[in-house]
Queue: 4 jobs
Job 1
Amino acid sequence: MPADAPTILATSGGIKNGRRTRFEFGELTEYALELSGVDGRTPKMCFLATALGDNPMIITAFYEAALIRGVAPSHLALFPMPNIEDVTAHLLDQDVVFVFGGSVAGLLAMWRLHGVDEAMRAAWQAGVVLTGGSAGSICWHLGGTTDSFGPDLRAVTDGLGFLPHSNGVHYDSEAQRRPLFQGLIADGTLPAGYATDDGVGLLYRGTEFAEAVSERDGQGAYRVERGADGRAVETRIDPRRL
């Protein structure tokens, strides 16, 4: 049973260190599973590590986390070739799609090369819940800040645009993120948007922001827009604690 509306949970989190494995699902990922509305069967989740070049260690870690949680896992890899014949059909058969972090610029290029962008749009419109952290958050928006090009952060402005906003991630933990995000909105490089501290997620129903949620105490989400004086205006949004 798909979600009752196109649903994206864009986060700066979603995973945590595992007790006996590399990682386990955090409360944000648990919330994504809840949003899918699955009841009476094992939920299906597809994992993409495109932004890390389909790193096999990360894919293996996902399978471990999924099995611990009791999720029916699959993954979509694009290197050295797609591992799935019909990507759209596979994504439409999922309850949740989880996109891992890394290079958002690389992710966008590879997805467009292989038509994953349009497959994702079809899944989103059909009610498959799309989630992920960092690059897996920015990608759904019009753009954001990225270290895809080097240690000095730059703008990425060619996101998928499912959501007509910009997106800032790791807002509290990486020193360049906040001032660059604000500056890019102030000078018009990016449109107004939303940012998340680590452990915080943004829920969108359709293209509209619905709420901010958090798996950590004391963290925030933020609305950032260009004021009448041409400066960035930041408004804190207190997230609901999961």
Note: Residues 7-241 form a domain with the Rossmann fold fold (CATH 3.40.50.880).
Job 2
Amino acid sequence: MNAPSPPVSPWQLFYGAIHRLRRSWYRKHAHHLPRPVISVGNLHWGGSGKTPLVAAIAAHLRDRGLAVCILSRGYGSHGRGVRVVSAGQGLLLDARTAGDEPALLAGELPGVAVVVGPDRYQDGLAALARLDPAPDLFLLDDGFSHLALARDLDLVAFPAPDPFGGGRLFPTGRLREPLAAISRANAVILTGVPDWDGRGAALASALRSRGFTGPGFASVTRPGAPRLVTGDPLPAGARVLLVTAIARPAAFTALARDLGLEIAGELSFRDHHLYTDASLARIADAFRPSDASAVLVTSKDRVKLLGRLDALDVPLAELPIHADPEPAFWKWLDGEWDRLR
């Protein structure tokens, strides 16, 4: 595994300089919350396996007896201001108001609070004032580029199918920031690998030339049992229509095939799509002639479609996906938390 050479086009150099100036400014002006902040983010524009990783880390810290609060921007939501999506007892807001990923996390993580808003510092202060128990720590979702809030640990996810995003910045590449920005991370995680064996260490080694000095770990993506939203399992080999609004629909298709499901067709929308009435009609029109037993979606799409296809007589099923980081990652994280505490 080798990181690509830095881009040398005038635009890429200019864009990289802007990012360096931004990082320099925020080193002096970032806000500090009175609790530890652990950021989980990426350098890519979507599709890094970050959300399942956030869920796994939140559950691990919760199970250590900590009051965890996830802070998220709520990308794509129509809500305004600071919103408590969950105080730890279940979902309080719908996906349209909260955002699809915060709604998913709130529904799947009992005992973990989720707060969204445009200013993560103000969100954190509101969480400390309004939640009972008050958070012991904040888990910053999609936080690597959110420099306005200081963090105590920066964890960065890299998708195994495209770890370096071609090495180029937007708009001609798939990176939010130059690869050199990884020098400020504490650890990197290669997500979506088939096994752990040495892959995380290889990623860390490839990033040494960009100034990264921390450890690297690997995380396997493990699908759960596909099931109808009624709770009934999908029969083995069921014929399904895949519907996705995620950054990497091909990865979801591959998981469904690996489970032995028969793919009747695929319908993809842009990442974070909120599914309008016209979108529901498109799904129904694709489903009726497909001879599929259900529409199969990701958990992120399930929170936006639940109950909305019933009137169209379209059964909805979900394929849960979980991140499973290697044991060495949990040992490292526990050590870092003990240091922070």
Note: The first strand starts at residue 37 and ends at 42.
Job 3
Amino acid sequence: MKFNVTANLDYVINSASTLILNIHALRTPEQTVLEETFSVTPEVKMEELHAVGGENRMMRLDIPSPCRLSVSYSAIVNNSFKVSDHRNVAETPIAQLGPDVLPYLNPSRYCQSDKLYRLADHMFGDINSPFEQVMALTRWIRDNVLYLSGSTNSQTSAYDTVTEQAGVCRDFAHLGIALCRALTIPARYFTGYAYKLKPADFHACFEAYLGNQWVLFDATGLAPLNGMVKIATGRDAADAAVASIFGDAYGTSMRVSCEVIEEKFKPYFYHGRKFEGLSYL
């Protein structure tokens, strides 16, 4: 399925600063970037960086003097996914997890799984299927946490979201990740462009490691799972921030879009599908 994604960001730069932007569509065997353009006005020194051991394509901008900076990105992405039957998928023993997966079992800055162990075990510990555990906790988040724009900030963690029972997509993702890790299911943060997301913005979901593959879940239910274009993954939002600013600078506006180019698109959700999971690799 082909998507056209765009992002336009504006910044006020008050002194020499460095911006690290994470808005490029990721290149994977199943996600091909057919075309893309990236421009910055005024022109500044920039270089593309790739996270070591992670899934991030970042652009580092070296801005030598005060200015008003405009960033424009657009890409045509051909995305594919697979739907797998997880009816008989058992929990993968820790002894069999690879070194690239093991870090996603540990608590992280925004996903304090150690603080949520009792809640996770009480609510979902008696469910035998790992996939059904993740489905159950995803539904629980959707039913018990109010999606409310502006209700949280960059410091809000999964533990805070349980207490406040409100948040935005990154908070829903952090809580899903923390509950998975508390159940000894590796989970990681997923950020990307999302088709049909209203209002249009960068979107956050999470992936759980089930049956030796990463399976996508969205506790908000705001966008079809097969309508995502992956930008990055990480332990939490700290690893996959859209923009990291070093210096006296701040953002003033952001415009994001994700459109399907092909006409035949059948949205895929988990509603009513108990054992089928969707994976982007």
Note: The helical segments are 117-124, 130-144, 158-164, 169-182.
Job 4
Amino acid sequence: MGVPPAQPQKKNSMMWGVIAIALAAGGWYYYHNQQQTQTPANNPTQPATVPQPAGAPPQPATPVQPGGPGPGGPNAALVQAQQWSSQEEPANGYVQVQSGKWVNGSNVSIQSAVLECDQYNANQAVLAQNQTNLTLSNPPLVPGNNATFGPFNAGQIVQGVNSVNCGIIAVTPAN
């Protein structure tokens, strides 16, 4: 008596079909997920970054100094000489500027200044710009001196804000 010959193993074509479908679905998901998370080079909804020559005034979306090109108008050189430092914190739906300190680094006495606080999203695009007049209790602010400011609100917090930057964008020299 002999052992019957071994039957060839049946291929489970259904299992291979399921694996093929799962791989195709995984590849489709990966491809479409990658397309959504990568930003194209010429995305019209994102502002273009224009390289600036050395020493050029900052542009509006540059978090280094708020304000438009050539902030300060006719007093741009005086604006560039002003220094502002503060901490910005959320407070009851507003951007609250705390520990504000303005230093007059120019050689001219300054009567008043305009502080701009810009709110940026994660891509450093400007979401909101709020301006506040800085008035002094004992004007003018003479060269080399500083003025400090208690907490004050600088605009409502907008949706999607990631960071805030404040800076002096205009000054009025003393007569």
Note: The two ends are 123 Å apart (CA to CA).
